Amino acid sequence: MSTDGPDELPGWLNYTPEDQLEKPVDTDVTGTIPQWVTGTLYRNGSGMFKVGETTVKHLFDGMAVLHKFIIKDGKVQYQNKLLDSDTLTRSLKANRLVVGQFSTAAYPDPCKSIFARFFSYFTPEMTDNTAVNIVPHGDMLLALTETPSVNIVDPETLTKKGSIPVDKLVAVHVATAHPHTDSDGTMYNLGTSFNHKQAYNIIKVPPKEKGGDNPFNRASLVSTFPSRWKVNIGYNHSFGMSENYFVVLEQTLVTNILKLPLMSFAGTGFESCMYNYPDEKVLIHLARRSDGKTLTTQYTADAFFCFHFINCYEEDSNLVIDFCAFDDGGVVHDLYLSDVKKGVLGKHYAKLRRCVLPLDVEKAETGKNLVTLPDTSATAVKQPDGSIFCTPDYITGDASNGVMMELPRINYAFNTKKYRYSYGTRFLTDKPMLTKVDMKTRTCVHWTTEDGDQPGEPVFIARPGGTEEDDGIILSPVLPMKPGRKGFLLVLDGKTFKELARAETPPGVKMPLSFHGSFIP
After folding, report:
1. Domains recognised in the chain with CATH numbers
2. Tell me, what's the pLDDT at 109?
3. Is 94:110 a contact under the CB 8 Å cutoff?
4. Where are the beta strands (DSSP E) in 166-260?
5. Spatial separation of the C-alpha atoms in residues 478 and 432, rounded to whole Å
6. pLDDT above 70 covers what percent of the chain?
7. In this model, does residue 479 exceed pLDDT 50?
């Protein structure tokens, strides 16, 4: 990726307010999109990296840009728009960033009184720049990030309709942008409290009732786990859920809570309070979904760092946990824009891993592998102190050559159930590709790009009436990396993983970065 000058940077790093599309535009479709595909793919990401006089430092710090791909009758219309959060509105007015982001500090808002600005050094403001994910809940469309702010988005105009202060409704300080939704419409999420006694919390949000109030007003905490440290809280980007259990990782990339009040004085962002402890173990916490009670069995594994779970399911008294993981949390520090433009992620990448947790261990023999599933090399050995030490299965290889992928997705109808296929991307690397993994045969099929174009998260859309897990299509936004190339929405066949179509944006239209999204039929 070129770093020689602004004119040679890919368009996704040069997005400005003038690049917004107030109305959807027609794309140029080549190939054939199946007629049954009717709906809208919404996406969200850290898309604008310069705000007035401020250029943010980190890939996670850009202002949220919402995307909309409207698919009907084999045609696609595209729109993108900056999310009009309070952070964006105030920053544009001040011509600089006035609310700190993950790694980029900010000056206090000049519109505030001198006293408000002074006290902001002691109580740093949480951003409402919800730039990570966009998901439906009932008839609401929600933009999420890793602060307690949730923005409600108008699905037609992509403008903000309202906001939800999660920390005012339940006792957490921040929450993830990766909730799970059960078949009955109940939403679950993981919230973090900067109190070591109740550090990790499962939040339950009831289904949205037609014509009813905002279901977040009835949110509750159903499970709580303590931190093993008094001044550190493990960082989590997502969590796992099986039919009967919640799964929370206590990872060795941590936030030092004593450092948080000092961010404003030091002129640093949240990331400056994070530390990596690669010599410590990861703890895997479980809680029963039926009553929220946490299991006393302690499951451990050698250090790794996971952004994204893939799926969790139970089989023969074992809990299978599939996830994408790096060897340590150093990747968070590698995502500064200065490094991303050099293709740093090509040097190391997350690998697909599987851990298997035996659930009936009270009378198990010490020193023996307790995993009873025949199709995995994962082990779980009871230690003299009663804990269970787990080693992962790399699915398609080992620690050195296992399949590399991130931003994983599945056919969500198989969430919490035994499944066969997962989909992911090698994004922002020198060898970009999309991958379909057959978890049963341990084989992969790839789709590779031209001229270094970067494919984003692959979203699986099931064919109505389909009976097989991979009967459907994959939608992935593809970012151009070289001048003169255009961004496009890629359509792949879910079974063969071959290209069916692509919808190319018109000349002059910029498609900035997006992380995650949802398809709404």
Report:
1. 6-520 (2.140.10)
2. 52
3. yes
4. 174-175, 180-181, 187-192, 200-205, 220-225, 232-234, 240-241, 245-250, 253-256
5. 10
6. 93
7. yes
Q: Which tokens sit at 453?
A: 């174009």
The Cα–Cα gap between 435 and 433 comes to 7
Assign 482 a pLDDT band (cuts: 50, 70, 90): confident
Using a 10 angstrom Cβ sphere, with 0-12 exposed, 13-18 middle and 19 or more buried, the burial of residue 111 is exposed
Question: From the CB of residue 220, how many other CB atoms can be counted at a distance below 10 Å?
Answer: 12
How confident is the model over 155-179, as pLDDT tens digits?
999 999 999 999 999 999 999 999 9
Q: Report the distance separating Cα 294 and Cα 287, nearest Å.
A: 4
Which string of DSSP letters, residue by residue, matches 292-340? Answer: -PBP-PPEEES--EEEEEEEEEEETTEEEEEEEEESSTHHHHT-BHHHH
Dihedral of alpha carbons 48, 49, 55, 61, sign: positive
Are 237 and 274 contacting, i.e. CB atoms less than 8 angstroms apart? no
Residue 247 near residue 319 (C-beta atoms within 8 A)? yes
- Please give the helix or strand (H or E) that residue 82 lies within, else none: strand 75-82
pTM of the model: 0.93
Q: Where are the beta strands (DSSP E) in 139-208?
A: 140-144, 149-153, 160-165, 174-175, 180-181, 187-192, 200-205
Are 64 and 131 in contact, with CB atoms under 8 Å apart? yes
Q: What are the tens digits of pLDDT across the range 313-360?
A: 999 999 999 999 999 998 888 888 888 777 666 567 899 999 999 999
Q: What is the dihedral of CA 139, 144, 147, 148, to 10 degrees?
A: 0
